[in-house]
Design a protein that fits this description.
The complex is a heterodimer of chains A (225) and B (215). With 225 residues, chain A is mostly helical. Chain A is built from nine helices and no strands. Chain B has 215 residues and is mainly α. Classes of the chains: A mainly alpha (225), B mainly alpha (215). Chain A binds chain B through residues 1, 3, 62-63, 65-72, 74-75, 78-83, 156, 160-164, 167, 174, 177, 187-188, 191-192, 194-195, 198-199, 202-203, and chain B through 58-59, 62-68, 70-71, 74-75, 78-80, 152, 156-157, 159-160, 162-163, 170, 173-174, 177, 182-184, 186-188, 190-191, 194-195, 198-199, 202.
Chain lengths: 225, 215
């Protein structure tokens, strides 16, 4: 038997696909910014050797890293309303992505920070830096440089993971693909097109973030530091 | 209205956990077998096969698993294969797992010192013997920790098969919470079950990694 593929009927719906891409990128952008920053903060707290907060953060990180993203999302969207927190699909998606990413970024950044040679910290202290200054100027720049590739990979994983958010009716790319296939029954073509778009987004994002890391952040940091 | 006891909910979730575990096992064994073949093909070092393998890895690592599941679900049907969710879920997860494992193990092979290859060649071992006696024992030692770590990833990935209707832990949770109107309780239990399965593996992976670093 022959299989007839008709991609045109999918491409014809490009405004829908474009909306989907915009949502996917928007969700990823917000969660990447917030997730990385909060990961930075949490990693800092963990390094202060404060017993209680460290332990709580450790539990949070382990809980998130050992449960599937889709369960976290459903917990927020379906579970929390029972406690009186009713969130929209979009808010739930962003929240789930931020909570997910910051657990991973905490761990990634911490592993980079822990690789700092103790002598460097002592040198910073002996120059009269405060603990925070030591963290900001001595520990963080090389640590971020070390873990930047891992962080980029994680951000891309979160971007790809956001495909699940369509299941709670956030109008991102996979939701568009689903909507298109429900209109013209060209399921295979619709998902091929969506997958191709995801693939190009992943490739472009990786390239941009790697460049951003090389040119912007680390140049700036090394000048400040 | 029927009241559901906590134990009823939890027991049904535990029953569904079986299928999460079975599917993870299928994905891991199938994925490992495929990854092993691809790894050997890569080491044989033909330009064209290497390119194909790299493209395969890039595609499966660069697209959401959800899209892969949908594509296998609808694509197999398009080819005239009688599809069941079992087949499409298993196939998608095997290809997904294999892509990652190929990449992980290739990294392990690369970190075996070049001299080991030369030494093996100078002993007059042929390619199969080099792999079997010299390279793979070392790759095995290096690869155990990241492979166990990736197993956690696979178990979490099986949760996505609920979307195409495969009844495992997450799908069971959706069904049960629709019946009982207790989504908070149900999803808490589900998260707990995943945590109980995954965290010992994460811990083990970390331990293995630390032990490797000490040697």
């Amino acid at each position: 038997m022959t299989v007839e593929l008709d991609f045109w009927v999918v491409i014809k719906e490009w405004p829908l696909l474009l909306t989907g891409v915009a949502w996917t990128l928007g969700l990823t952008f917000v969660s990447a910014c917030v997730g990385t920053l909060s990961g930075l903060g949490l990693a800092w707290v963990r390094l202060q050797n404060w017993q209680m907060p460290s332990r709580i953060i450790h539990i949070y990180v382990e809980l998130i890293r050992n449960t599937p993203f889709i369960v976290q999302l459903f917990f927020i969207f379906f579970g929390l309303p029972q406690l009186g927190f009713r969130l929209s699909a979009e808010t739930s998606s962003v929240l789930a992505m931020v909570i997910n990413l910051s657990a991973y970024s905490t761990e990634i950044i911490r592993s980079g920070v822990e690789a700092t040679a103790p002598g460097q910290i002592q040198a910073g202290r002996s120059l009269g830096f405060s603990e925070f200054q030591v963290f900001k100027h001595v520990i963080l720049p090389p640590a971020l440089f070390r873990v930047w590739p891992a962080l980029v990979a994680q951000i891309i994983i979160v971007m790809l993971g956001s495909a699940v958010c369509g299941q709670i009716s956030t109008e991102e790319l996979s939701y568009s693909a689903n909507l298109i296939q429900s209109r013209n029954f060209r399921a295979f073509e619709a998902f091929i097109v969506a997958a191709a778009i995801y693939l190009s987004l992943a490739i472009v994002m990786r390239w941009c973030l790697n460049r951003l890391g090389k040119n912007l952040i680390f140049k700036g940091l090394s000048q400040n530091g | 209205m029927v009241e559901f006891a906590f134990w009823d909910i939890f027991r049904n979730l535990l029953l569904a956990t079986r299928w999460t575990l079975v599917l993870s096992l299928i994905a891991l064994t199938g994925g490992a077998a495929l990854a092993f073949i691809l790894l050997v093909l890569r080491l044989v070092n033909y330009k064209s096969t290497n390119l194909l393998i790299s493209v395969y890895v890039e595609i499966f690592q660069g697209t959401p698993l959800l899209m892969q599941l949908f594509l296998f679900y609808f694509g197999l049907a398009l080819l005239g294969v009688e599809t069941s969710v079992w087949w499409s879920a298993a196939a998608a997860l095997i290809f997904y797992t294999a892509a990652y494992l190929t990449e992980i193990w290739t990294g392990c092979v690369r970190s075996v010192p070049k001299g080991q290859w030369f030494a093996a060649q100078s002993l007059g071992l042929d390619f199969t013997q080099q792999l079997k006696w010299i390279i793979f024992p070392q790759v095995y030692r290096l690869g155990v920790a990241p492979t166990v770590g990736f197993l956690v990833q696979v178990i979490k990935a099986t949760a996505l098969t609920s979307v195409i209707g495969f009844i495992e832990l997450t799908k069971a949770a959706t069904m049960i919470s629709n019946v009982t109107f207790k989504p908070f309780l149900v999803y808490s239990c589900v998260a707990l079950i995943y945590f109980v399965i995954c965290s010992p593996l994460s811990w083990l992976a970390k331990r293995l990694e630390l032990r490797l670093a000490q040697v």
